[in-house]
Design goal:
Layout: H1 3-24, H2 41-63, H3 67-82, H4 97-133
Amino acid sequence: MKKRDIAFGLIVGILGLVLAVGAQTFARPCVHADGSAAVCATVKTWLTVEGGLIAVLSGLSMIRPNAVTQGIAAAGGLLAALTPGLLIPICKSDMMACQRVTRPTALVIGILVGIVSLWWLALTLTAKRREARS
């Protein structure tokens, strides 16, 4: 394990965990006063799964750097960014939690995961290319 892989793995893994935990706590979608399920209720489940998957993939890539798992983690981040609103409908009102908190949180964390994972992927591919030349 290289220090670079540990650093990138920790960053991506922590972002994935923040997404998963946030979807269940501070960034969870709307809860109606009458207890009924909101249209955005499934967003919480999907973001939790996506965040957990990102964390697991980053852990695997940290132990054994692999371009495939790093690429899937990047795709997972971009998928998380698109989940609330585009892939799964959310409430239309700007005053609802899913519009004010859930969607921006997923967008920011998803884009950060995508950028960091793609950067890590590029460094891994560059290192493998250098090893092949030697």
